[in-house]
Design a protein that fits this description.
Number of strands: 13
Structural class: alpha+beta
Length: about 250
C-alpha cells in the first residue's frame, strides 16, 4: 500500500492535511471454481458485466454498505437472487464472495437430487457434508489456494462462513480471532450449498456460496492498515495544531 501526503493548507488558522491512499491490488486468484462465471478476485467492473449476462430484463444494482452487486429476478414461481460481495478501497474493488439462491413455489418444485447432480457435474465430488436435520443439509467443496479441489479437509472448516466476514471487509478483521476463525481466514476457499428441504426429496429453497476467506482477510487487513494510518495522521495533525495554539502571558 502506498501513501501520499498533500501539503498543508491553512484556512482560518486550521491546517488541513489530506491523506491519499493509492488503490492496492491483492494479486491474482484462480478463475476456477466459478459461480455463474463469477470468481473471487474478479475485478468489480468485469463482475458487473458478467452478472448482467444472466438477465436481459432486470438490471444489476449496487448496495453500499456492504459493497455488493445484486441481480434479483422476482419470478413468483422461482425467485432467483445473486449477490456479489466486493472488497473496498484502498484495495482495487474485486469479488470475494458470490451467493446464488432460489426459492421455489410448490407448483414449480426442484428436488434435492436435481440440485446435487448439477453441483457435482460442475464442481466434482463434495469434500464435506453436514446434515443438520431440521437445520438443513450443508455440502462443501473445499479448495486449496491454487483452486485445486480437496478430497478431504478438516471437519472444523464446516464452521466457516462468508456471511460472518461481511462487516470485516470494510472495518478490518477481528484483532483476536478464535481458533475456528484463524483456520477459516487461513484456508477456507469453498463452494457451500445450503439446502432447505420441504421434505426428504423436495426443496423449499437453496443457497450456494463461493467464498475465498484468505483473499477477503488480506483485503480487510489492507483496510485496517489504511484506517490506522489515517487515524495516526489525524492524531499527528491534532497534536501539531495543539502545539501551535500557545497562550500569551
Amino acid at each position: 500500500m502506498s501513501m501520499r501526503l498533500i501539503g498543508c493548507v491553512s484556512t482560518a488558522s486550521v491546517c488541513l492535511v489530506s491523506v491519499l491512499l493509492a488503490q492496492t491490488p491483492l494479486g491474482p486468484t484462480p478463475h476456477t471454481p466459478d459461480l455463474l462465471g463469477l470468481y473471487p478476485g474478479m475485478p468489480a467492473r468485469d463482475a458487473r458485466t458478467q452478472l448482467q449476462k444472466h438477465s436481459a430484463n432486470v438490471n444489476v444494482t449496487s448496495d453500499s454498505p456492504p459493497n455488493t452487486l445484486n441481480l434479483i429476478i422476482p419470478d413468483p414461481m422461482n425467485r432467483d437472487m445473486v449477490r456479489v460481495y466486493l472488497t473496498v478501497p484502498p484495495t482495487d474493488p474485486a469479488v470475494w464472495m458470490i451467493q446464488r439462491s432460489q426459492v421455489f413455489a410448490p407448483q414449480n418444485p426442484m428436488s434435492q437430487n436435481a440440485l446435487l447432480t448439477a453441483l457435482r457435474e460442475k464442481y466434482g465430488k463434495e469434500t464435506l457434508t453436514n446434515d443438520k436435520g431440521g437445520g438443513g443439509l450443508y455440502v462443501y467443496w473445499i479448495y486449496d489456494q491454487s483452486g485445486k479441489l480437496l478430497t478431504a479437509a478438516d471437519a472444523g472448516l464446516a464452521g466457516c462462513s462468508g456471511n460472518n466476514f461481511v462487516n470485516y471487509v470494510s472495518s478490518g478483521p477481528p484483532p483476536m480471532p478464535n481458533t475456528i476463525e484463524q483456520a477459516c481466514f487461513r484456508s477456507f476457499f469453498a463452494v457451500i450449498a445450503m439446502l432447505n428441504r420441504r421434505d426428504a426429496q423436495i426443496l423449499e429453497s437453496y443457497q450456494v456460496d463461493l467464498v475465498n476467506l484468505p483473499y477477503a482477510f488480506k483485503a480487510a487487513t489492507v483496510v485496517a492498515d489504511a484506517n490506522r494510518a489515517a487515524a495516526d495522521q489525524a492524531r499527528r495533525n491534532q497534536l501539531d495544531k495543539a502545539d501551535r495554539n500557545k497562550p500569551k502571558f
